[in-house]
Structure formats: C-alpha cells, structure tokens
Write the structure tokens for this entry.
Amino acid sequence: MAILAPSRRLRRTPFSEGVEAAGVKAYTVYNHMLLPTVFRSVEEDYHHLKSAVQVWDVAVERQVELRGPDAGRLMQMLTPRDLRRMLPGQCYYVPIVDETGGMLNDPVAVKLSEDRWWISIADSDLLFWVKGLALGYRLDVLVDEPDVSPLAVQGPKADELMARVFGDRVRDVRFFKFDHFDFQGRDLVIARSGYSKQGGFEIYVEGEDLGMPLWNALFEAGKDLDVHAGCPNLIERIEGGLLSFGNDMTDDNTPHECGLGKFCNTHTAIGCVGRDALLRVAKEGPVQQIRALSIEGPAVPGCDRWWPLWSGKKRVGRVSSAAWSPDFKTNVAVGMVRLSHWDDGDEVTVETPDGMRKAVVHEKFWI
Amino acid sequence: MAILAPSRRLRRTPFSEGVEAAGVKAYTVYNHMLLPTVFRSVEEDYHHLKSAVQVWDVAVERQVELRGPDAGRLMQMLTPRDLRRMLPGQCYYVPIVDETGGMLNDPVAVKLSEDRWWISIADSDLLFWVKGLALGYRLDVLVDEPDVSPLAVQGPKADELMARVFGDRVRDVRFFKFDHFDFQGRDLVIARSGYSKQGGFEIYVEGEDLGMPLWNALFEAGKDLDVHAGCPNLIERIEGGLLSFGNDMTDDNTPHECGLGKFCNTHTAIGCVGRDALLRVAKEGPVQQIRALSIEGPAVPGCDRWWPLWSGKKRVGRVSSAAWSPDFKTNVAVGMVRLSHWDDGDEVTVETPDGMRKAVVHEKFWI
C-alpha cells in the first residue's frame, strides 16, 4: 500500500473536512484534487450504497463554464452528440473528441441557458482544450473553472434524504434533468444524476463556503436513514458498466470503441471537431470494443495496469478495471476486446499479476 | 497518512519496477502518473542527494511533441519568451500563459530541430492547450505525447556516473544544452538539467522497453558511488527556489508574479498568446510576487493547502510550500507576498495548522 504525499497541488475540496471526520481510508487524485475511494472498506461501502444512502464528495468533477453569445456554438464543436434539441434544465452525457476522433473526456454537459453551460468533467484538463479552441476560432465566449463543487447523494434512500433538506419538489426532478433549489438563501442547481446505478442526485455547490454547511445539513437530516460518507464504488460502477476515463478509455480510443456510438450523431452534429474521422469510424465500425468480462477464480488483485487478454497466443484485448463482486459471486471486469472475440459468451484468458485466468465476455454489464 | 488507491488511470512508468524494488515509500500523482516522493526519508534522501548521486524516475515530465512546418511558429505562440535565437541542441525554461497572461505550465522546451520540438511539462494537460491552438489556428503541425520518459541523474557525482555509462563526452554537455548518446544501439537525448540545484542530467528515454535496462545499467555502474533511487526533494527544491506549478503558482498568476518576468520578452516575442495582457503587467509591475520565507520555530507540518500570511489583521499573501531545512536550521518556504511586504527582511505572520508563526521574507532563496 503506497502512501500519498500531501501537497497543495493535490487540492482539497470544500467537503474535505467532512470527509476526514468521516474516516476516509484512501484517496485517488482526479483533476489535481483529492477523491476519496474507501471509507469503511470497498465491500462494506458497496453493500451500504445499495441499501441506504451516501453523501459523496465529488468536487473533483470540476466545471468548465462557457458563457457568452458563442457558448452554444462552442459546445457543439466539442462533441459529436447533436445538441440542437437540448433545452435549459437538461444534462447530456457527451463524448468529447479531438480532430482524429480520440476521446479527450466523457463529461456531462449542463445547459443552464442558451448562452451559459457547465461541462462537468472526468479526469483531464478539458479546460485547456476548450480555451485553446475558443481562442483559435476567435469565439465570443468566456471559458473558465468556476467555484462549483458537486456533492452527490446516492443510494435507494437518496430521494427521502434530499426531500428532507430541499423539500418534496426535489422528488420531481427527472433523470438527467436539473432544477434550482434554495439552501440557506442561496440558489443551487440539483440534477438527478451520479456515478452509480443506485439512483440519486448531484448538487452543484456554488461557493466553497457552502460546502460544510450543506454536508452537515445532509448528515443531520439523514441520521435515521443510516446516511454515511461514501464515494464512487469500484465494484458497483463495474457491475453497472459505468466507464472511467483514463482507466477504461484514453485518447487512443474513439467513442465507438467505448460503446458510446449512440451518443455520436455525426451526420447532424454540424461543426463538431473530429466529424470527418468519426464518419469514417461509423461507416467501417470499430475493430475493438468495451465489454463486460467475468473472470474466474478467487478475488483478483487491484488492477493498476492493463492486463492483456489472450486467445491462445494471440492478443485480443486488455482488462482495465476489475473487482470481486459479492452480489454476483464472480470477478467483474471492464475490458477492450477485439472484434474476433467480443461476442457474448466468447472465452478468453486474462494475464493477471497472479497468473492466467479464464474469462468470459459479456455483451451486457450486471444491470 | 492517507493511502493512495491503485488504478490504471494513475499510470505506472517504464521505471516503476525499479522504483518499487528500491523501496519507494510515498508517491504523488503528476500528469496522471506516479511520481515517487520518498525513498528512505525526506531528510535522508536530502542529505544523500547533496553528497552522492541519485537516479530519479521523472517519467511524469511527459513530452508534448510538435512536428511539422509550423512547429516553430506554434512554439513561439505558446510562450512570451523570445525563441528566435534558440538553436537545436538547446533547452529553454519557458512560461506558458493563456490570453490573459495566466500561467498554464512552466515547462522546458527542447529544440530537436527547426521543425521538431519537445515540451517537457509540469503538472497540467498542456497537450490539450497546444492541440486546441494548433487546430483553431489551422497550423500545419502534428501535436502528440510520444513514448518518451525522462530519467534524471542528480547530485555531485552525476558526471562520474553518467560518464561510466555514456562515455566521457557526456561531461561536455553544458547547462541547458543537450546532445545525442548511444545506449544499447539506441539514440538518446541527454540534457544537463534537472529539478535540483546539485547538478546532473536528464535522459529522455525514447521507448518504454529501454526503461529498466537503462535503470539497471546506472545502478550497476554506480555501486561504488553510493548511487540510490531518489526523487525531487521537497527541502532541497525549496532551498533552491525551484517552483512547483500547482503548488506555488496556478493559472491565476502571471509569470511576473512568479519571478519569471526575465523569461518574458513581450516586446520581441511576436505572436505569443497573452502578449497584450503581459505588456500591461510588464508596464505596471505585479502587486504580489513569489518570495523565499523562513518560518520560525520547530519543523512545520506538511503544507497541503495555502497558509495565509498576515501583517496584523491584514492579509498579505500565502505560503504554498514549506519544510524544515536541516542544513539551514530553519523552516524554508515559498510564498506569494503582497508588494507592501515583499522587501528583504520584512516580517509577517504565517497561519499554519499548528498556529501562528513569525516569518521573515527574503529576496533570495538559500543558494
């Protein structure tokens, strides 16, 4: 177990005080910021997430704000997903690609108004890409990272907890929609979204001074709901097929390889960067794709590097995330698999640090 | 002490195997990659660095490669430093700023030829900024991250160790110059540079397969020189006034605030982004600047957030890096100090997690 050396460069969040008091055991670093990964144990956190309600410090989902007359035009340049019918109050999961169609990030776009957007990012400095494009194309838009830190409330009892703090109206917010709510006289954007399949919300906390008051209010209101501090859970997110940029995909991969072809409307998303490359990909189809895999045998070790996938002596892909699933009684994994072996039920061999293991390819995750 | 959770997203390096075998005790994360921070102890590593020779895995200094007819033009767009007299074989420390003059990175530019450059970056995805500009300005240049991982050899015995592996010609490489050397039939760029004041080299290892063979060759050749695995040392780099992007400066700061005004030739660096903003800054001068500070009392705790600087009830700056210096018998620190209190000898108060401490501002670091 390696120690993480503290420094200012690994930024704390508006909720760090609460996270520490809740006994965080491990962190990862994400967008130059601390992201908790374990509170009690990954397995205990997993069972609790599926049965109760957790509050997650996901301030690492930094926002890139676009503001100005060209905000909408720039947003459409950034993604091959067609945004023409998107309305204020909606959130869209949007692959973002470079001119060759390689993934740069897979954020959620939040349309605040016609001329104001937030892009809630995965782990890469997307701000630099957006600023570079805005400057190079001389667009009339301001691009920066505002003082906004998402706090997620996830789990089957999320609606109940949120209603106690924000009123029953929060129950009406539909999936990937958001509305505005008051907390201590301040206006907050709250969306029904989050990096789990257990349901819940993400609160876009605007103003770091509001972080701990909101954290404390949620814990105070949720005592009898067994509310706990939590974090994106490795096992649950693999079961649910939630991809992780940097783990499961990199800028080497197209959205189509990542199973995100359905978010690419390359024929209608006029003006998007990477359109030519993606039209070609859409025509020919990818030669490898992300798949669920179950790995036989006892619990695998932590997956801190790509594990090669073999079929005999032929390399047919790699595993990028893996964990033992207590509910499904198998090792669940995410991998990139070559066309020749990506059909449901195909058998392959995984080269883990503990040796070779048999694995089975699945077209669907555990949902 | 927090644990760092392993994942593929925190990339290993071509030297990780050697780093682990050498008993690394802690890491930080830098450019989505593992950077060792401690081997024996920060203090023991410090004394050893100043007296012997160390091999550092600084693969986190990722390269942004510019290649093509517009490579030189793009490089000059990126920095306010005048590059017109720079020759192939030279390295330049170059502040990189956005259109408002805010720092995006403080890398070393390596001019391989007129149409091919490497930018050896600090901790931010500079690749995204460079790619965005290249695309927006429709430049004829290829921009990507090549398979190049720097390995540093630092310390007073660095010349001796390097000469044993690469021949005596390596002794002739002058400061911030580079030359080409052979290792196992492969051509490697070696520069006299590195993130310490103890002298030494950075080897740009092209091809990850060469990582461990080179690592092993250096350790084999240096046995009688007491060669050890090392890493950028917090104490030594503060004493030497080596700044850390993300710690001591962010995109809120101009190069002039960071004491890097001498690298800004805003009158002659025609075409650089941020020129208008920096001309204004150069005319008026900054209102705050980076300074060395000595903090009184016993060893300070780890500086994982900005520590406010006070003069009475007036906030006059912040400390961003601090450590106890065994050689200078004081806490050495880096801070951003307001104009009113930045003169040599000015006294201020630092708000540390352990309470208020007296501190003295210095115009020079401990070199």
About this structure: Residues 31 and 124 of chain A are 6 Å apart (CA to CA). Chain A is about 20% helix and 35% strand. The domain at 16-58+147-238 of chain A is CATH 3.30.1360.120 (Gyrase A; domain 2). Helices of chain A lie at 16-21, 42-51, 71-78, 126-136, 158-166, 211-221, 234-239, 275-284.
